[in-house]
Please model this.
Amino acid sequence: MHPTASLLRDVPDFPEPGVVFKDITPMLDDAEAFGTVVRDLAAPFADQGVTHVVGIESRGFIMGAPVALALGAGFIPVRKPGKLPYTTVSQSYDLEYGSDTIEMHVDAVGPGDRVLIVDDVIATGGTASATLQLVRAQGAEVVGIAAYVELSFLSGRDHLDDVPIVTLVHVD
Model:
């Protein structure tokens, strides 16, 4: 188990009854732990020629930006519709109850770019899979996906093709 796993807090019935939310804010509040997580997410990709880190709204921004700095790469936000100021491309995906859409700037990545996708948690894999499709549709290569926590019991990894996936804390 990762040394920061004890800083993951369970919040019952959030955002709706029956859901146990995995809160990463106690880890973020500990500078040493946060630094360890950033280093451990970046390290497996240090020699992969990453040109851009894509962070998924919203906690993926918190995790992805320092990973991008650690890798000497640019940072690209992937957001919900209507949140980015320039022309965007979008990808819709299914949720357990309904669907959603994510967007990124049309000129964010392209052929020759090597992208690492970063988020805080991989759950069902829907958002990460949509981000993977969005980046690939722009012609960039996805070198991996990195997340602090993986909810293994939801099998999100199964929806993420053959992309290398690095997660630090596994919840079974």
Notes: Helices lie at 25-28, 31-42, 59-71, 126-137.
